[in-house]
């Protein structure tokens, strides 16, 4: 049955009132810091680590600042939402920075620009209007497309990185995840990460270099100039904004409603505000631009995270690494085997893609979701093209029926 757009959005379009927002706050769960939250902490490592390393090296950023600020933002988000709400590097920005070796001032200026833009969209209520108009099948298509992209990166770049030895390592990690996924006594991510650490210690880690990089460092204050903000807005923020609207705001809001029904009142405006605040603060301390994201939430949840404790633990690791091993960040990150990161990223992608199952029973909706997924994963600016085309198809069909 082809339902009107408002019915398709369903539960995701019901939470715009002040009363609902109050209910969200009262429904915040208690923080936990058990082994399952620790396992969930590693659910987004396969996405975050390569992007952080790539941007730091390409732009010549201060490693201690990048790590420490990234960790602090994770901790603040976990305390605020009490959910495994992720903080991730901005993916479109990261791709441009790594490809073009963008200057650090322009990167940090781009963070300020997109933070200001998102704050404007949130405070004017535009984000809530956008979220209301986008049907659920379109959101599922965005998530499916992102899952396809992540799976392609996991299998096409990470798993193959170390040749035959990497394939063997990835196979062991895959078997461990399949055997232990959902196990509350021994969460899957813990032995997989332990396997990666052991492999790094034997084959990649240089003990003398690690000791030489040890030392206390604080983040460095930074003040991007107005020219850097303008350049960052044009070069980085504009290409990033459509992806952020689709994945960081709309898809993340839907996924919170899916995984945490008691928090279905969380609004696009609230998510947009924290997104904006993070990017209006981080650049002044040398931190990379960041976002929330449905893939990170799916990853933390898939590996056991159920409260903000998982991202608090995750952020604490980055803070410790930044404060004491910031000088050796690149060496530490490159030592961890990519095939293991690939398996973690693969299951994060699978967790996202399986969400499309709830529209599979309606052939028309499922076709729209598939169309959006193909556009999002294959076209330049695919997320905004897929989101716009899918939404238009649904509303035109609804008008025809009327």
Provide a concise account of the structure shown:
The protein has 402 residues and is mostly helical. The protein is built from 20 helices and 2 strands. The chain has one domain.
Account of the 3D structure:
The radius of gyration is 20 Å and the shape is globular. With 402 residues, it is mostly helical. The chain is built from 20 helices and two strands. Mean pLDDT is 87; it is low at 6-26.
Note the topology.
Blueprint: H1 5-9, H2 18-26, H3 35-41, H4 45-59, H5 63-81, E1 88-89, H6 91-100, H7 104-123, H8 126-133, H9 136-158, H10 163-180, H11 189-203, H12 207-212, H13 226-259, H14 268-281, E2 290-291, H15 294-302, H16 309-325, H17 329-335, H18 338-353, H19 363-378, H20 382-401
Helix pairs in contact: 3-15, 3-16, 4-6, 4-17, 5-16, 6-13, 7-13, 7-14, 9-13, 9-18, 9-19, 9-20, 10-11, 10-18, 13-14, 13-15, 13-20, 15-18, 19-20
């Amino acid at each position: 049955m082809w339902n009107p757009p408002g019915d398709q959005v369903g539960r995701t379009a019901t939470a715009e009132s002040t009363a609902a927002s109050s209910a969200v706050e009262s429904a915040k769960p208690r923080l936990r810091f058990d082994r399952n939250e620790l396992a969930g902490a590693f659910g987004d490592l396969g996405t975050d680590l390569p992007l952080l390393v790539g941007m730091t090296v390409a732009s010549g950023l201060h490693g201690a600042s990048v790590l420490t600020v990234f960790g602090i933002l994770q901790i603040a988000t976990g305390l605020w939402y009490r959910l495994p709400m992720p903080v991730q590097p901005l993916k479109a920005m990261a791709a441009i920075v790594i490809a073009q070796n963008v200057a650090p001032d322009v990167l940090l200026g781009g963070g300020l620009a997109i933070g200001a833009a998102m704050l404007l969209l949130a405070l004017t209520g535009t984000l809530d209007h956008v979220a209301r108009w986008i049907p659920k099948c379109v959101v599922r298509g965005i998530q499916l497309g992102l899952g396809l992209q992540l799976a392609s990166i996991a299998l096409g770049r990470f798993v193959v990185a170390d040749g035959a030895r990497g394939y063997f390592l990835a196979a062991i990690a895959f078997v461990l995840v399949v055997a232990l996924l959902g196990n509350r006594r021994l969460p899957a991510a813990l032995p997989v990460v332990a396997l990666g650490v052991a492999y790094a210690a034997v084959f990649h880690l240089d003990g003398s270099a690690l000791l030489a990089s040890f030392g206390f460092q604080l983040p460095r204050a930074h003040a991007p100039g107005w020219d850097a903000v303008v350049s960052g807005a044009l070069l980085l923020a504009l290409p990033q904004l459509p992806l952020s609207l689709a994945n960081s705001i709309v898809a993340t809001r839907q996924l919170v409603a899916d995984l945490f029904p008691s928090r279905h009142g969380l609004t696009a405006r609230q998510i947009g505000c924290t997104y904006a605040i993070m990017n209006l603060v981080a650049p002044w301390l040398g931190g990379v631009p960041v976002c929330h994201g449905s893939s990170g939430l799916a990853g933390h949840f898939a590996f056991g995270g159920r409260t903000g404790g998982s991202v608090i633990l995750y952020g604490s690791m980055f803070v410790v690494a930044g404060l004491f091993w910031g000088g050796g960040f690149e060496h530490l990150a490159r030592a961890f085997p990519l095939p293991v990161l690939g398996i973690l990223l693969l299951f994060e992608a699978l967790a996202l893609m399986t969400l499309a199952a709830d529209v599979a029973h309606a052939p028309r909706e499922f076709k729209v979701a598939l169309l959006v997924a193909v556009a999002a994963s294959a076209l330049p600016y695919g997320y905004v093209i897929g989101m716009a085309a899918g939404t238009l198809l649904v509303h035109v069909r609804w008008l025809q029926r009327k």
